[in-house]
Every structure is written in structure tokens, then in C-alpha cells.
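Structure representation.

___
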Amino acid sequence: MRRPSPRTQLVLFNLYGDYVLEAGGAAWTQGLLEVLGLLGVGSRAARTTLSRMKRRGWLEARRVGKRSLYRATERTRSLLVEGSSRLFGPRPRQWDGRWTVLTFSLPGERRLTRHRLRTRLSWIGYGSLQPGTLIAAYPRVDEARKLVSELDAASYLHIFTGAHLDGMEQERIVRSCWDLPSIDARYARFLDRYTPVLRRLRNSKDGGLSPKESFVHRFWATYDYSEFPRIDPLLPDELLPRRWRGHRAYELLTELRSRLEEPAWRYLQEAELFAESARADSASHRPEGSRAARLAGAGPRGDSA
């Protein structure tokens, strides 16, 4: 299955979110170029995107002697921690059958806020029932209130919890708010792509993969799965179609990432991606024996970028 050309900024966000933050938050420029090249991003595109992300406040650039590095800003850390929580956080528990409804009405001049509100609420499982009305099976009210407060929209929003709907109404709302067959089809494509990789890993100790290959498979599996938190509301099983493939996809990702974790980090250590200051910070703030702390022993190499 041929892979579409990746968006360099998304590749960098995924690289920082899954690896660089855990190792302190900074990466050597030369290491970034090497790793991005392995992922199919050319040097010119990589440098252009790094400079653009610096201008937009996502990254900070520093020089250390003849070498240069890019460190994630607090804005980036906050975004990536939130995304990681949504991607790898605990699955919803048993449902009590109650729904939460949010209604809002913002003035015309706050059109952008309205768009951001709908987008970010969809990330935590709210579907658009009507213009200005969203509904969720799992309330996550505290997260919704925090989000609304950040957007300075609390005075325009009302929250109603504990709504009970009959079965036919629930089915109608689910069909109206979420395109579950389309989401399930995307999960099927994910499973088709990565089931052979996992099968290969199960059939041999290391799957015959080098550290470099392990990193590539682990990175792309996570990158491809990262679309699902934006589109899957994580509905209770009672509301999902039979043979829903979302559960299988999550289990596959979890096992594949676990099996490839050590060799993937070994490759990044060999590529000397992580800046020395970041490795030192990481080692001092993480439990002894953690993978980030283990990276602290790698020495720098020449980097004139």
C-alpha cells in the first residue's frame, strides 16, 4: 500500500510528541535531518519547516558551539501532551446510559472561536447535533469547561447533563452526529497495513527488523493512528456497530509499539537525535533506568548545521 507524501510539520510534531519530549524536549539539527530523511522528508523541506515552526512559536533554535538544536516551546509541549493523552490515555469506562448536551451561541464577530470550540470539543467526543448544539455519551464536563474557559467563551455556553434517550432516538443521534461506517473503514485500512508487521514480530524474537526499521514501523503506525482521536468519539459499545474494528486497531497499535519500543529508541540514540542538554535534563528528572535516562550516556557528534 503506497503511502501519501507526509506533511513535514505533522511528522515533526509526531516525532517531538512521541520521542523528543520524553528525552528532554530538544533535538540536534543534524539528528533531525537524518531521522526526517529516513522518514522520506528531504533536507530542504525539513530545514524550511523547522524555520517556519520557529517563526510561528512552535520551536526555539539555539546554537551550542558549532552545533544547533531545536527545542519545543511550552506552547508545543502543552499541545503534544494533550494529544498524547487523547491518543494513549485510558479508554472510557462502562457507560451509565446518560448523555451530556452543550449549547452555545457566539456573536458573529467570534466566528473563529466558534470553529475552534466545535473542533476541540469533537476531540473529546462531542458530536454536532445541530448548529450550536453538541452531544456526548461520556460527559468529560471538566475538560469541556477548561476548554471553554481557554477560549473565553464560558458566558456563551450551557451544559445539560444526565439526559436519557430511548433506543430509537439514540440510534438516530449517533447516525446524525458521527459517520461510524466511514471511521470503521479507516480502522480496517489501518489493520490491513499493520497486521502483517505485527504477525512478523510475533513469529520471531525481533521480527528480523533492525533498530532503524523498527523505528520506521513504530513511527508510521503511530502517525497513521493519530488521525483517529480527531474522528472517533470513543462511543460506548452499546452504541457501536457490531464487529467494530476500533478496539482491534487500538490493541494492535499498543502491542506493536511495545514490541518495537526498545529497538526504535536504540536507533534514535545511534542517530544522536537528542541534544546533550536535553539528555542531561531528562536523566535528572526521570526515574533511574527509564529509557530517557539511558540516553544521557550518548556523546555528541559534529553538527555544523
